[in-house]
Specification:
Ribosomal Protein L22, Chain A, alpha+beta, globular, 4PPT_N
């Protein structure tokens, strides 16, 4: 979406919608054995620095229980690509390689938290990460930050995360990624909060698309999702609702998909958004 065509793409047709997914399964999941998890983390090739960031204190603040998350705030110089992924970045420039390797390393740390063995994370249609069977997840990266959030498919249907620098959008971008109603809200909210809520809006739309695309393998335009926000008492975190302005599409025979709900936070110079649809 927009300048962030780095994942999945942009310009989606108006004919497809996304939504909140509902699960009839119990909202609990057994914790993996700690000793086995430690062994799997070691197999994932974690450096000490990476293991520390496995706690995911930044994005973890906006995630529900039952998902696994890992993040890198610093890039370990000895971090190498998984052998099964090297061909995907063989021709990439160094920055792209570091983002790719770092985000997928986080994914393997998250797999270990779920009690799953390390695995190569391939690329599917529109660059969609291909996680092991039975696992859903999402990756993100921006300058100085890489993260992955994964979950078991039997509990959670889809995950979408995004990270952006807490800075205003480049000139001219807002009009191309927002609806008139969203811009009207921003005109009052930005001066009142002092936050770069235009970038938050963009970040929420990215998370929306990342949660939706794996469910449908269909495109979605910026103009097809209307995002509304709430702010908590701190003023730097809250929730968002992504309402779809296109005909809903069913997934696995369920009700039409019409919306997603997510959480957001602004901290340490970063904007983070997360949708975990259950």
């Amino acid at each position: 979406m927009g300048h962030a065509a780095r994942l999945y793409g942009l310009r989606r047709p108006r004919s497809i919608g996304l939504s909140r997914c509902r699960s009839r399964l119990p909202r609990s999941w057994p914790r993996p054995d700690r000793a086995r998890t430690a062994r799997l983390v070691a197999q994932a090739g974690s450096t000490q620095e990476a293991v520390i960031e496995e706690q995911a204190r930044v994005i973890g603040s906006i995630l529900p229980a039952g998902v696994a998350a890992a993040e890198l705030l610093r890039y370990p110089e000895d971090l190498k690509p998984h052998p099964g992924e090297e061909h995907l970045i063989a021709q990439s420039v160094e920055k792209r390689r570091r983002d790719f390797i770092g985000a997928r390393h986080c994914a393997r740390l998250a797999l270990a938290q779920l009690g799953e063995p390390p695995a190569a994370i391939g690329k599917g249609e529109r660059g969609m990460p291909l996680f092991p069977r039975g696992v859903v997840g999402s990756l993100t990266h921006c300058d100085g930050y890489r993260a992955a959030v994964l979950a078991h498919r039997l509990r959670w249907r889809s995950v979408g995360i995004d990270a952006e620098p807490h800075d205003t959008l480049p000139e001219g971008v807002l009009d191309s990624v927002s609806l008139p109603a969203e811009r009207e809200w921003l005109r009052g909210a930005i001066p009142a909060t002092g936050l770069h809520l235009d970038r938050l809006l963009f970040c929420a739309k990215e998370a929306t698309y990342k949660a939706w695309f794996p469910l449908t393998l269909r495109w979605l335009g910026f103009e097809d999702a209307h995002i509304t926000f709430t702010l908590d008492e701190s003023g730097t975190a809250g929730t968002f609702h992504s309402a779809l302005l296109v005909p809903g599409q069913t997934v696995d025979g369920g009700a039409p998909l019409t919306s997603f709900d997510g959480r957001w936070t602004i901290t340490d110079g970063l904007i983070l958004t997360a949708i975990v649809a259950g």
